[in-house]
Amino acid sequence: MDPAQEELFIVRQDSPLNAEPPTSALAEFPITPEQLVYHRNHSDVPAHDGTLVATTFTIDDLERRFPKARVEAVLQCAGLRRAEMGATGREVKGVPWGAGVVANCYWGGVRLRDVLLEVFPGLEREANGANRTDEHAHVCFTARGAKCEDDAYYGASIPLSKALDPEGDVLVAWEMNDDDIPPVHGGPLRLVVPGYLGARWVKWLDGIYLSNRESPNYYQARDYKVLPEEVEDKKQAAPWWDKVPSMTSMPLNSVIASVTKVEDDGIPAGHLRLRVKGYALPALGVPVDEVQISGLDVDAHRVWEDARITYQGGRWAWTLWEGEVVARARKGKIIVRSRALSRTGEAQPESGKWNLRGVAWNGWSVGEYEVDA
């Protein structure tokens, strides 16, 4: 990290580097600047010569042979808000992430679909036929230069149906926010899989192959899965890894990034007005329709106020929002909650589901404001 990031970021692990910015800074930018993009790594940054093996393509080859594509999409770690899950009283395994491991960026490159259909003529016809089903056909990705903690290299896979979906927007990317992707964020080539957790957005991408099963790599087969709630340790987890499906999408979510006091002489005595700001995340590309906030200490099930949407990009992007609540100005902590609702009517649940790996936590977000006197 550069010196400015070192002062701002919360470092969760030095080597490999895992660090996140404060949410209060994130929520100020519709498009996350490179300086605020979180660091999630299972290895140190490897050397990469910019070559992708499918047959063999360099970045210049990709630029010359395929139409350029640009997608706005939010990248989020599966362990987003893991520290909150751990605070429920049951231990979770993994980096104790807060809510800063998320970044909404523009990504530029070429569509994976176009590359696959050139390298494997007839693939789409075969995928839609009887010889290859969506359930079992996968596209696997490797970053063999990334020497990882739990495997010889980093690998992952996505269903072939996602890769070939004309509206899936899966990219082989070399640009982030219209500039080269920095090596610390996966450059020169990384996969972009809108709507999927960041573990599938393979950084330092150097290989692609087709398979009739998911990638056997540790980070696909033995990690990033929502294990049953009764599984509480590594030994109990062992028989479940082959039974539980790999994560793909992340759930509908909202996060309170900041709670600040607003000077207002017009409110009743003994009360104060608070401004609440945050972000919301879509599930499977279904846009967030509204965000609601509650400043009540009790009865938050029934009384919600609509927040104002301040930014909403495309179907894969995050939503920024802000709103105000009036609360009693008594000494101590004032609790504020948020929840997101999707365009199809899904509501963010009051509580997430605990699991050993601490992934996919999406209970109502809770913010606090401290009243001194």
TrEMBL record:
Report which residue ranges the record marks as coiled coil: none
Q: Which residue intervals define the domain Oxidoreductase molybdopterin-binding in the entry?
A: 55-219
Mind listing the UniProt keywords for this protein, alphabetically?
Metal-binding, Molybdenum, Oxidoreductase
Q: Which Gene3D superfamilies match?
A: 2.60.40.650, Oxidoreductase, molybdopterin-binding domain (3.90.420.10)
Give residue ranges for domain Moybdenum cofactor oxidoreductase dimerisation.
247-364
Q: Name one GO molecular function term.
A: molybdenum ion binding
* Any one of the GO CC terms: mitochondrion
The yes or no answer to whether the keyword Oxidoreductase is present is: yes
Q: Which GO terms describe its biological process?
A: sulfur compound metabolic process
Pfam families membership: Mo-co_dimer, Oxidored_molyb
InterPro entries found in the cross-reference section: Ig_E-set, MoCF_OxRdtse_dimer, Mopterin_OxRdtase_euk, OxRdtase_Mopterin-bd_dom, OxRdtase_Mopterin-bd_sf
Names of the cofactor(s): Mo-molybdopterin
Q: What's the name of the protein?
A: Oxidoreductase molybdopterin-binding domain-containing protein
The scientific name of the source species is Schizophyllum commune (strain H4-8 / FGSC 9210) (Split gill fungus)
